[in-house]
Amino acid sequence: MLKIEAARVIVSSPGRNFVTLKIETKDGVYGVGDATLNGRELAVASYLQDHVIPCLIGRDAHRIEDIWQFLYRGAYWRRGPVTMSAIAAVDMALWDIKAKVAGLPLYQLLGGASRDNVLVYCHANGKTIEDTLEDAVKHKEMGYKAIRLQAGVPGLKSTYGVPKGKEAYEPADADIPTENLWSTEKYMRSLPKLFEEGRRVLGDDVHLLHDVHHRLTPIEAARLGKDLEPYRLFWLEDTVDDDNQENFRIIRKHTTTPLAIGEIFNSIWDCRTLIQEQLIDYIRATIVHAGGITHLRQIAHFADLFNVKTGFHGATDLSPITMASALHFDMAIHNFGIQEHMPHSEQMESIFKVNYTFEDGFMHPSETPGHGCDIDEKEAAKYPYKRAYLPVNRLEQGGAMCNW
Ligand code: GCO
Ligand code: MG
């Protein structure tokens, strides 16, 4: 028995908010887990602090599955991003502890390496097609083999996913959400040009990806998938919203462009139909938002039966602890597809000590025992929580709210 003696939540904002759970055992071994839910951080912090931690003290840290079931079934109120991120944080921390006790890098406990390293994709963004492709060329020169292209839409002032200033990405930068205006017609007209130019400038040997951020209807998504077919995308992400899995039947009927979805899923029940009916090609549910390693294993193994591969979310609002854990998972599972990689800032990495590496388009998890990411609590305390939101989206014509 490896008794859990203490646990605490650490909220820190080195450029953006992160929620971290640290679990300590009687033997002095500790583990850390990520509990960050962008824009709703304190809800998960309270869920852990007020409702989970009191129930963890005294339990056996080795009983990962049992603790998962205790938190999932025992709460009566199941699923949802807050619950599942809290469970994920506990789960990540416990796997970290188990691997440290075993003296092995986490992927060894998950079955060992199925591959030599982990293919990652990066982001290339810009206000215009030229800016985006300039950024993409830079990333290609850095060794990236897969690049996500996002560009501003001509005629729209600002769009989520397109940087406002010089920074690499649009951050959660407002204490009350700002608003963008959206036009599907303008977007649908401009996007194929980005990929036509992209293929011309970048060549055929680089994987190209794109994220639609749930902004279309199924029939619009079908049209877009068809229009992009000549450019052979690696995937088209989040075309429509996830509330109705059957939406994908319509899209699938019309296009062979590979489809990815799942970064906002938190349970296997959010993607069961999508996977079982082979309506998607990549599942993006992540360790931090979908119940941790324990539940993600269930999703990945289920997906494998239906030729669906993984492509985990890896934006910078997921802390380096999630990135570290994801890389171990990616190494071990058979049906790995690709991993998103947005490098964290130096400031962030002064708090979260990472040991993973990037070389020539591929990443490798830490070889130290555990998942290999630790938090410097003293440094973390220097950056107090700051309320921050991503922008919202309204239709240019009429002003109704729409997906961002
Ligand atoms: C991605 C995502 C991000 C999310 C962000 C939300 O594919 O990386 O869509 O851009 O919007 O992580 O918190
Ligand atoms: Mg996305």
UniProtKB/TrEMBL annotation:
Pfam families associated with the record: MR_MLE_C (PF13378), MR_MLE_N (PF02746)
GO terms, molecular function: magnesium ion binding; mannonate dehydratase activity
GO biological process: amino acid catabolic process; carbohydrate catabolic process
Residue spans crossing the bilayer: none
Pathway annotation from the record: Carbohydrate metabolism; pentose and glucuronate interconversion
Keyword Lyase: yes
Alphabetized InterPro entries for the sequence: D-mannonate_dehydratase-like, DgoD-like, Enolase-like_C_sf, Enolase-like_N, Enolase_C-like, Mandel_Rmase/mucon_lact_enz_CS, Mandelate_racemase_C, Mandelate_racemase_N_dom
Reactions listed under catalytic activity: D-mannonate = 2-dehydro-3-deoxy-D-gluconate + H2O
Stored SUPFAM superfamilies: Enolase C-terminal domain-like (SSF51604), Enolase N-terminal domain-like (SSF54826)
Alphabetized SMART domains for the sequence: MR_MLE
Cofactor(s) listed in the protein's UniProt record: Mg(2+)
Top-level EC class: lyase
Residue ranges constituting the Mandelate racemase/muconate lactonizing enzyme C-terminal domain according to the UniProt record: 129-258
UniProt entry keywords in alphabetical sequence: Carbohydrate metabolism, Lyase
Family to which this protein belongs: Belongs to the mandelate racemase/muconate lactonizing enzyme family. GalD subfamily.
Protein task: Catalyzes the dehydration of D-mannonate. Has no detectable activity with a panel of 70 other acid sugars (in vitro).
Protein name as annotated: mannonate dehydratase
Organism from which the protein derives: Rhizomicrobium palustre
